[in-house]
Amino acid sequence: MNHNQEGLQDTGRTASNKLMVETSKTVKVLAPATVANLVCGFDVLGMCLEDPNDLMEVRLLDEKKIIIHSADGYPLPSDPMQNTAGAPLVEMINELDNNTGFEVIIHKKIKPGSGIGSSAASAAGAVVAANHLLGNIFTNTDLVRFAMFGEKVASGVKHADNIAPCIYGGITLIRSIHPLDIVPIPSPDLFVTIVHPQIEVRTKDARQILRKEVLLKDAIRQWGNIAGLVAGFMQNDTALIGRSLEDVIIEPVRSILIPGFDEVKRRCKEAGALGGGISGSGPSIFMLSTERETAVRVEAVMKEIYNSIGLDYNTYVTTINKTGVKIIND
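Now predict its structure.
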């Protein structure tokens, strides 16, 4: 059972707000990066990664306030309502009828604006850690509901395609956010290669350039790809996964913000990747492979392309994290 499911089953209802504080009043967690959209599933599909992770330390306070610290000097807003970790905790303590608060120390390893769920990691890590300190009185659905307030701080919109996999682990389908309906999907044993070109694409900006209307023929093709991708994951059908990793609505618009995108995608597939595309709003690009050797070969292609462009980058070769936010000490 997942660590944040130990208190109650995930029934979707809010837990009792009576505190059941653990002996330890401080906890550390690893909050993982995530890939949202998975190419064709804009705002409805997400995947949790083993690497990279933010390290977060959360301490229980006996007064109703939220304190945020940056452990490594990275500029993070100290006002809780302007902080992606703070805003969810404000929502959480507002549902507790006592003087309880939290102090949060964040070691930020997932760069904001990278497209691999930096804001979601802060939000999800904070609420999972806080819930642990409270004795796991909230369900996973509650935690996603709280953490979405962090995404609203980051992008102006409450969405769960990074939050849900970060909390649940693996791959998740967000069938609805009104009401919140999250469906965990079986995660195949695939390797994930990511390149993060060192430019920033703000989620808010990447949303503003999207078309407000789409052609029916494009919508039909996109629905087929989403259904095919989910079926591919559930059946562990890698060929179906590969041919379903196609986006005819969002990617053609957003890809213009990412130097080298078309070449990266084409050459990585030629190197053996099943497929991939923009991670979230970008600029990171992810590719899925069935073997580690292929994933490493794909990484070499990514490096070659960005070396030739003359743009700094980071790369990761990782796997799908099937547990989500991880508590590493009590």
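Confidence is low (pLDDT under 50) at residues 1-23.
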